[in-house]
Specification:
Length: about 800
């Protein structure tokens, strides 16, 4: 007999009739959900109002949970929402529910909500927010909502046992089965909203966090708290996953969750990190359409985005518009602009802005000065840094303290100015300021990168003498430096000495040593050390696996490299597309494109990010091997998974088709490329010209070039055609095209003509070379004298004395030679 846990927290015995009733309701829910396609087709054929169909769809939309049913007054299903299905042993019976209600099994999947809000569909792509109309809706009395104040308490929840267990299960996703899935669902229902947020922030890979967010949102009888949406957006704001952030924003609209300015700020920052400033600024337009008024944080974010996108002028216009509508900038606003000036090396303007801030009622803080100091340290302008430190004290009563010196030391060390950093370190200590291990470690790291290991060791000894005990960062810097100079045994000894000094090495320490071993051809030793990490206190991370994999790759041990990649994925670390591509390139160069394709397919199946470049690498590998059918098969696979080939993919295929003489197929492939709106590159033109002329298809080449040139007009295309024709011995056709390039002659045109003249001489046709030289002279383009002397001699040998005399006389007339 089943027991159902009711909202009144009492247990009741269920009869068969009640259980059957629940099953029938689930079946109705399941069947109704699958009738929408039929209803849509039937309505289009019979003139039924689409709004009624949409209303019906909203009624049964599983994405909105039971809220829709409650609004429509469905009392039966409303009661069902209060119960869990339990088999009496604490095991939930999910097997008997439809897949749409259960959620996808054993996989987070790549799905998002799958629908865009109306506001996104109506977004004007041409509106870049230059008029800043959104500032007109500024509300001076906006305060931070209560829901966002809870995000600051999430850090404490990260240590909760349930959060740690949830993260552990997520890390095991590559080995998931129904048991793990069931356990994850149970834990999900036990977590509080702040703990769900802690899970999202604890996951090392933000893509996995986003997939977990979508997976959890699809689970039956679970709905994300609004706080979770804001936490997810905050996580995505630190990445380039801008489309995922925008979908979360759209999902919030569908869930009727109030979107505060902070949500839009996070999406803007994500677009900015992805390098899409225009899309980031369009979020302001989206804010205006949704009726969300901007606050000062939104304005600061917009200025930050514009500055990061190297559009300082627009950021200054935005500031002026802010002031016009009554938004008073704060020190953060001005600091963003100071950074923008420094990015453009306009230090005078940055200092002018700092000096004018007190008059605007917003005196600068130390960050204002530190920003300028950082850029001056980059250029090693130490004297100006000292002047700026004096101005801090004289103009704004900001005393250069320990933090100031630590900042300067760190910035100088970061940019390789170790000697100057040591000067500031000594100066600070003479003034009685305490420089901690962070400042010392920065200098040690700079010395190690420069290979000055003796000085680095002396500085570490000095740290001991002054009572500043080196930490794991300091030791790791020395280990890295020893590996750079090839003293691997010394690095291994230092790793053991760390324990004696009471400093336990961490993953970064071991990774530094393993990277050094791999760079020096000792990848197998590094692999053994990594394998023994399971019994120690450190765990390899994605960087560790990547270093060992590249070590095997460089040594040509591809089998071992592939094994490392598979273990890496199994441990939950996804190699990025660049790492995948380096391995596949090495395999293809070794003549093993089949294995490269298998590696790419394995990574794709496990959820790794595989891009168009990876597919192009495999296609190029098959083309190099001569297996063109396999290359075309990979091209078809790209379309199946919605990966659109780029111009380099098409260029590779076109060149391979032309190489095997399949010119007609190459023409069709080029037309497909143009039809998709791709712009041919110079490499594309070179490949097309070479292959078409190689197989004497000049007419087809000229027709294709007429279609390609309007997309991207390279002036040297005709030069390339002439040079290829002459190199393949088709001198008459090359001569006929000379007139086209001599309309506005340049040095490149002269080189092309010289190339044609040389080929004419090689082929024993000095008369045609003479004609080319005459055409150059008519366009006031003086040919090479030594080359024309060779032409004249050949003409004389062949009894063409008149032509030889005319050619040399033209040089005399132009005073290039004496009579």
């Amino acid at each position: 007999m089943r027991k159902l846990f009711c909202s009144s927290h009492q247990f009741y015995n269920c009869n068969v009739v009640f259980t059957t009733k629940i099953r029938i309701q689930n079946l109705e829910y399941y069947l109704c959900h699958r009738q929408f396609a039929f209803l849509s087709i039937w309505s289009s054929r019979n003139g039924v109002d689409d709004n009624k169909i949409e209303e019906t769809k909203d009624l049964y939309d599983c994405n909105d949970g039971y809220g829709k049913f409650e609004e429509k007054g469905s009392g039966d299903l409303k009661g069902l929402a209060l119960f869990d299905r339990n088999d009496g042993d604490g095991n939930y019976d999910f097997e008997k529910l439809p897949d749409d209600v259960q959620g996808k099994r054993c996989d987070f999947g790549d799905e998002d909500d799958g629908e865009e809000s109306e506001e996104d569909n109506g977004e004007n792509e041409n509106d870049d927010g230059d008029d800043f109309r959104v500032l007109d809706s500024f509300n001076q009395k906006q305060e931070q909502p209560e829901i966002l104040r809870g995000i600051g308490d999430i850090e404490d929840e990260m240590r909760h046992p349930l959060v740690k267990e949830m993260c552990r299960l997520i890390d095991m996703r590559s080995a998931w089965n129904s048991k793990y899935e069931l356990e994850l669902r149970r834990l999900l229902r036990c977590l509080k909203p702040k703990q769900v947020c802690a899970v999202l922030k604890s996951v090392s890979d933000e893509r996995v966090a986003l997939k977990f967010f979508y997976w959890a949102d699809r689970q039956w009888r679970y709905r994300h708290h609004p706080l979770v949406y804001y936490a997810m957006l905050e996580v995505l704001s630190k990445t380039k996953l801008c489309q995922g952030a925008k979908r979360i924003l759209s999902l919030m609209a569908r869930r009727r969750i109030k979107r505060y300015p902070e949500a839009f700020c996070n999406v803007m920052i994500s677009f900015s990190r992805a390098g899409n400033t225009r899309k980031a600024m369009q979020i302001l337009t989206l804010m205006q359409k949704t009726g969300t008024g901007p606050d000062l944080s939104v304005c600061n974010t917009a200025i930050y985005v514009l500055v990061k996108g190297n559009d300082l002028d627009k950021a200054l216009r935005f500031l002026e518009r802010m002031k016009a509508v009554g938004i008073l900038p704060n020190v953060i606003t001005y600091n963003c602009l100071i950074k923008g000036y420094c990015d453009m090396y306009r230090f005078e303007d940055a200092m002018e802005l700092i000096e004018g801030m007190p008059c605007k009622g917003c005196p600068p803080d130390k960050v204002s000065y530190y920003t300028v100091m950082g850029y001056l340290c980059k250029d090693n302008r130490v004297d100006e840094v000292r002047e700026l430190m004096e101005k801090m004290w004289k103009d704004n009563n900001l005393l250069p303290d320990q933090v100031t010196y630590n900042t300067v030391i760190h910035m100088l060390s970061k940019h390789g100015h170790a000697n100057e950093a040591l000067e500031f370190l000594t100066e600070a200590e003479e003034k009685g300021l305490y420089i901690d291990k962070v400042g010392y470690s920065a200098v040690v790291n700079s010395l190690c990168k420069m290979g000055r290991m003796n000085e680095a060791k002396e500085l570490v000894q000095e740290m001991f003498q002054k009572g500043c005990t080196p930490d794991v960062v300091t030791y790791t810097s020395v280990i890295h430096g020893l590996c750079l100079v090839g003293e691997l045994d010394q690095a291994k000894k230092l790793l053991k000495q760390m324990l004696k000094q009471g400093c336990r090495p961490n993953t970064i320490s071991f990774t530094a040593l393993l990277s050094g071993l791999c760079r020096n051809g000792r990848s197998m030793e590094a692999r053994e050390m990594m394998s023994s990490s399971d019994v120690g206190w450190w765990t390899p991370n994605a960087v560790t696996y990547g270093a060992v994999m590249h070590g095997f790759r460089r040594e040509g041990k591809f089998t071992e490299a592939i094994e490392v990649v598979r273990e890496m994925i199994q441990k939950g670390f996804f190699p990025n597309p660049v790492e995948i591509n380096l391995l596949m390139q090495s395999l293809c160069k070794d003549g093993r494109p089949e294995e490269a394709k298998k590696v790419m397919q394995d990574c794709l199946n496990k959820g790794c990010a595989v891009n168009v470049v990876n597919f192009t690498t495999v296609i190029h590998g098959f083309c190099q091997k001569g297996d063109l059918d396999a290359a075309l098969s990979v091209l078809d696979d790209m379309f199946l998974i919605d990966k659109h080939p780029d111009v380099f993919t098409y260029t590779t295929i076109i060149d391979a088709l032309g190489k095997t003489g399949r010119i007609d197929e190459a023409i069709e492939m080029a037309k497909k490329m143009l039809h998709r709106g791709l712009v041919p590159t110079l490499v594309t033109y070179r490949a097309v010209i070479h292959r078409f002329i190689q197989y004497n298809r000049l007419d087809d080449l000229l027709k294709l070039l007429k279609k390609m040139l309007p997309r991207q007009d390279f002036r040297i295309v005709d030069n390339l055609v002439i040079e290829k024709l002459s190199s393949f011995g088709n001198l008459d056709a090359a001569y006929n095209l000379v007139e086209k390039i001599l309309g506005f002659p340049s040095k490149t045109d002269a080189n092309t003509c010289h190339n044609l003249i040389e080929n004419c001489l090689k082929k024993g046709n000095p008369l045609l070379a003479y004609k080319v030289a005459c055409k150059m002279l008519k366009r006031d383009l003086v040919p090479d004298l030594k080359l024309c002397e060779q032409v004249s001699k050949e003409l004389m040998r062949r009894g063409k004395a008149d032509e030889a005399d005319k050619l040399m006389l033209s040089f005399v007339e132009r005073q290039c030679v004496s009579s």
